[in-house]
Specification:
homodimer, about 325 residues, alpha/beta, Nucleotidyltransferase, domain 5, 2 domains, five-stranded mixed β-sheet, about 35% helix, globular, transferase (chains A, B), ROK_cs (chains A, B)
């Protein structure tokens, strides 16, 4: 191997979540060679957080220091690709605008690129997952919230300010359900996130007193619990997913008429409900498309392991630079 | 000037509409040096149409033949950039899939690039109009129908199949007004096209018997007629535009959360209603945006003369190749 062979170069991926921050060292094949995590919320100031992250990561960085490390890719809620700042993230401990990419670059002496967590997930899918080789796709993350990353012409759509791709906040039912945090009425997230599904389940079980959903205690009602009740044949539990899938499918049809992707890739806890949600989603997606778009957009699940996807996605950013 | 100076090179723009086909020879500064038109619907077969177009255009092509002609750009309903074909255009006389770019290239011995008419309009705006220098914008054409062209990262979004940007068919009112042609319920075009505005006006004048809108004969009700009545102070006529603007504004907010454009550029006959439609559009657009998107997206009118825009837009395609 000559000195110009970079195929064994490595990238670092860091995923900052409200509770945990995960990190890993990744090779070109998407294998995580080493990984770890720290508690995000244990660091009240961003300086302490970066100090803690640096201390935690130094052993694995030194371990691989004989191989070049191309860069650090970082995904975070409200992370802005253009400015490298996290801006007013409601679920992180640090207020205001945090110039985290610059701070990490200086602390680690390795160039750091930031994007939001949903865009990072889409990057990971394009580099290592279900979107390999695709130039046009949309990734939708159905978790506690609804996130999204949109790729068109082979490029992530960041928009003029770096904030593009907030599909969870698109209004799909004007005047509909009020969002617990934004206050908007009828947004996709209000219905199709895990939180939205729990609200739907509580509403429907109140209307159907014989449903086995009523046997679950109030604080245990979540997407997984509803799935388990559906598996036992409960029609109300199935209706929760049918209703959610209809709204998701209608929204996906609108997204397709915007950017005409080759595929829509779904990711996140909600997709564990499988066909209960996928069948109505697919049905209403197709039904709401113009004929020229029908029966050609793939609706698939992520191919990345949920535990690794965030690290892989973030690391994918580092190869770009 | 040496032989490598191409600044005086020319491009041909052809805009195929259901009734007329306009063509022109355009320079780099967006000046139309010569133009003309033929009747699209006078040619029952595509072969006759291309023969007729060639005969009509040869005099002006020969006139400029001492200068290089870089290419022909063509805009047409259902025109596909990737395949160069017009596919199942309901308003054109020719059925099925028409390989028009190839046919024109061969007939004129000049390379021809095709796109749909709304994308061509956006190209023209980027090259010569209100979107000069922008890398992220959305162009919305409010005419008989609602068309759109979306530019992101400086590139037109065509999608994987060339059909992206059908924003007129996005559902903005699930279960709402049935579209006269697609049969879909609640699409943007059903409300915000000139046709949609006429429907709203007829509905509202029936509910408000004292409105001066009732003095217009049934077949004369259109966007312009409603505007004229609004100018005389009629509240029902104003309400037609307020209602239309609200729906348009809500839709634009959704589009912004998708691709975060620097500007939305409006074009077409409907915008002649000016503030009657723009004020509610802007108000409801801002109201439905997440705070991070508020008060930063420009909502502007096209800067191109309506009579020339289609030719300029189509010609802009030719410079790209």
């Amino acid at each position: 191997m000559g000195i110009l062979d970079l195929s064994n170069e490595l990238a670092i991926g860091i995923d900052i979540g409200g509770t945990n921050t995960k990190y890993g060292i990744v090779n070109h094949r998407g294998e995580i060679l080493d990984k770890g995590d720290i508690k995000t919320d244990a660091y009240p100031s961003i300086e302490e957080f970066i100090e803690g992250l640096h201390n935690a990561m130094m052993p694995i960085i030194e371990k691989h220091s004989s191989v070049g490390i191309k860069g650090i890719g970082m995904g975070a809620p409200n992370g802005n690709y253009y400015t490298g700042t996290i801006e007013y993230a409601p679920n992180l401990p640090w207020r205001g605008i945090i110039p985290i990419a610059k701070m990490v670059t200086e602390k680690f002496s390795i160039p750091c690129t930031l994007t939001n967590d949903a865009n990072a997930a889409a990057m990971g899918e394009m580099m290592y997952g279900a979107a390999r080789g695709m130039k046009d796709f949309i990734m939708i993350t159905l978790g506690t919230g609804v996130g999204s990353g949109i790729v068109s012409n082979g490029l992530m759509i960041y928009g003029h300010d770096g904030f593009a791709g907030e599909l969870g906040h698109i209004i799909v039912r004007p005047g509909g359900r009020k969002h617990w945090s934004t206050g908007a009425h009828g947004s996709l997230e209000a219905y199709c996130s895990a939180t939205g599904i729990a609200i739907t389940a509580k509403k429907l079980r109140a209307e159907n007193i014989h449903s086995a959903l009523n046997e679950i205690s109030e604080d245990k009602i979540d997407s997984l619990a509803v799935f388990e009740v559906a598996e036992k044949g409960d029609e109300t539990a199935k209706e929760v997913f049918r209703y959610t899938g209809q709204i998701l499918g209608e929204a996906l049809a609108n997204f397709i008429m915007f950017s005409s992707p080759e595929a829509i890739i779904l990711f996140g806890g909600v997709i564990k409900a499988g066909d209960y949600i996928m069948k109505p989603t697919k049905e209403h997606m197709e039904k709401n498309l113009l004929p020229i778009f029908q029966n050609k957009v793939k609706l698939v699940f992520s191919e990345l392991k949920e535990a690794d996807a965030a690290i892989l996605g973030a690391s994918a950013l580092a190869w770009e630079t």
